[in-house]
Amino acid sequence: MPLKGSVPAPPPPVPLKNGAAPPLPPPLFGAAKNLGPKRPTTRLKRSAQMGNLYRVLKKKMEGTNQEGPIPEGRSSQARRGLTGNSNGGKQGMADTIAEITKKSSYFQQIEKDVKKHAKSIMEVKGAITNFQTKDMTELLKFHKYVESHLEDLIDEGQVLARFEGFPTKKLETLRTAAALYLKLDAIVTNLKIWKVVAPLGQLLDRIEHYFNKIKGEVEAFERTKDEEAKKFQTHSINFDFNIIIRIKESMVDVSSSCMELALQERRQMKAVENKETPGSKTERPTKDCTTKLLWKSFHFAFRVYTFAGGQDDRAEQLTRELALQIESNLQHQ
């Protein structure tokens, strides 16, 4: 019996059966729960003003009674232009044909390639089997290395089939990932070097045409992104999907430059109007034309905002200035 005021002794430990390990201690308070990859960061953010500005201006410019911003829909006809297509081999049929045509010059050339390139192919086989990366520059470099060893084969499928265990599926996945990244990176490059120059009307026509093209491709790819990621990871390729964010940020930059040009042309036009005599024949049509171009610039900015899922501080400021200018033009017409 414990003495009065003493602390009772702890109970004896529970004996473990079959050498089992003791239970783990409870997790510490505030311990990290998600150890997975961090979410990609972007300078784009949702706007508190963009939707309302679009609704008000659309009503005034087009006479509609929309009660909210019209989100840019995703076309059900969007083509899957960025996903890789696997070319399933018909090895059984190929083997049969090869058996029948053993004496043909084509078959002899295949056998010649097998012997001539055996050492090189075995080297590529090992390299592909062990290849893993999350660096897209390394991916493209390795893809170039592989193609340099296979490009001279008269019939790649027939030749590689002679090498047991050649990682054909990983080779196809490697090519798909490299082609996909090259295409997405080309979009970023095109947007970064896009020349934003007057006249504004022609500029908007060109950039909208390009935007409509890449928008369908990017959105189609985003719908299959998770599936593609799993396929790539199965073959130890961690694809850098931040390239999509770079496309959206670059598209916002081009849109902002178009708005700057629209405001610049309006200031230049206003300076010309101030020199004209009141009531001249060119004054009213010039204002009407300028207002339409300002609205077209704003409408394009809204479509880009919806596509990108947000805008940066520069775009936020420019859309506000553009909306005020459109309002001013409409009041003076």
Taking all residues together, what is the mean pLDDT? 79
- Can you tell me the number of structural domains? 2
End-to-end distance: 100 Å
Percent of residues in β-strands? under 5%
Strand tally, please? 0
The biggest beta sheet reads: none
H/E element order:
HHHHHHHHHHHH
- Molecular shape: elongated
Query: What is the subunit organization of this protein?
Result: single chain
Helix segment tally? 12
Helical content class? 55-70%
| Rg over CA atoms | 32 Å
Structural class: mainly alpha
- As residue ranges, the low-confidence spans are 19-38, 65-89, 281-285
Written description of the protein model:
The protein contains twelve helices and no strands. It folds into two domains: 146 residues, no CATH class; 89 residues, no CATH class. The protein starts with 49 loop residues before the first helix and ends with a helix. The protein is mainly alpha-helical. Helix 1 packs antiparallel against helix 11, helix 7 runs parallel beside helix 10 and helix 11 runs antiparallel to helix 12. It is 62% helix and 0% strand. The chain is elongated. About 15% of the residues have low confidence. InterPro entries: CHUP1/IPGA1-like. Keywords: Coiled coil.
